[in-house]
Records
---
Amino acid sequence: MTSLPAWSWQFAGGHLPTVAALPLDFPITRDWAWGGATGAGVKVAVIDSGVDETHPAVRRVSGAVAVEYDVDADATRYVEGPHEDLYGHGTACAGLIRRAAPDCEIY
């Protein structure tokens, strides 16, 4: 283990619960894993290269803010509104999120 404070054994005092293992051929489905949850009421922030809300895997974005550095002013500025995804990574992440939680709000 590590000395980092995030490891559970340091806080559990030897009282970590055990969970029975599933058989190797157990059919793990989306419904079994999420119990019918759709992400409704959940807000997810994608902090990445941007999100292309017109991509069919994403479909909609609830809001967007880009943080830019202005060299001339030596300051950061915040630009609200739809943005492009210059590298595609943020859109890929948002598409995976939408697939797992189709009713969540993506920002």
---
Amino acid sequence: MKKLLVPILGLIFIFLACSKETTPPEEPTEPSAPQNLIASEGDLCVTLSWEPSGSEGEENFAGYFIFIANHSITGLSSFSELLPYLGNDTPIDSTSYRIENLIEDSTYFVHIRAATNEGGGYLLSDPTEESSFTARILLPAPEGIGFEAGEEAITVSWQHCPKDTLADFAGYFLYLSTRSFELIDEDSLAILRYNAVPTSDTAATVAELSEGVIYYFAVSSVRNKNGEYRESELSEEVDAAVVRLGDGTIYEYFSGGESGFDFSDGMPLLMTSENANFVDIYLGTVAENDSAGLLCLKSPHLVSDPSPVWNSVISRIKVLGDGAFSDYTETDDYGWNTEEMEVVLAGRTYCVKTPDNHFVKLAVTGTYGLFPERYITFRYSYQPVINYGKF
């Protein structure tokens, strides 16, 4: 037995060696393709994102190649054919990529392929679906849009576009609507342009507006590219309505003069029960019976007249601030003085919400006289739209 063992083992080794030499090598398997390529266009750039290949995590997985050309190249298959259109020199391991410095008005075709390392070279997957786009210079929309309401007119203002130094920068289009731009189809915007050609100014006054209507405004930045207007997205919209502007003078209640004021008609009134349905505010003092003391703008229901008709005539009042009259263009329905009165100070601006729910901006321009003949002068902006706090 011992004499036969070595030859038999030798044959086994020879057989195994021959078997190993004659087994053909395994063909490499190409990686699975990434999916769902999305191209998000920017300012002469594009950001690509995609879902990962199912081959991620495998030992020889190398990453992703991006291919970009001015024509479709998904029909090419070998790496040598695709090499001239390679967007990245080495595979990337992320599933997003940004391509910059594109040429305006050029159309590009892009796709992504996964790659594995195979014998010093790369084996590519099938491509993603191809995405095409045309490179554009994207203008930023104007910012800081604001308004100043007047009688039958509203002035809209905005900040300069950061790209207004471009050689073909044309200016701005102002858009005007009676409903929110969020409700308007983009294809319908052209008929809402207020100016037929772009304006180089950063403000525009829209005249001949109707009282009691809320208007919506938005602005776009504009280039003139070879006679074609190219616009930014619309700015944030701002809404506003025209107001009634006026001046007034009222006397303190103890004087017996006209201490009440009707903003809707712009006239001072005596604090008599016959006028109870018209008075929006009156000039009294901190005392309950409006005797000597600091002057106050007060809700009509605080008047010392015992007639019950005043009980339901309640106005709200609060201080807006000590800045310029034009500094205050809107307010909300909060922050009212719970005592329904505010001490008068020349140069201070107040807000009144009348008994019939109209907002009024009132700035005291002067205080004059001695008790009980003191009086104040003021300017005001009355908003005819009910429960609308913009003036």
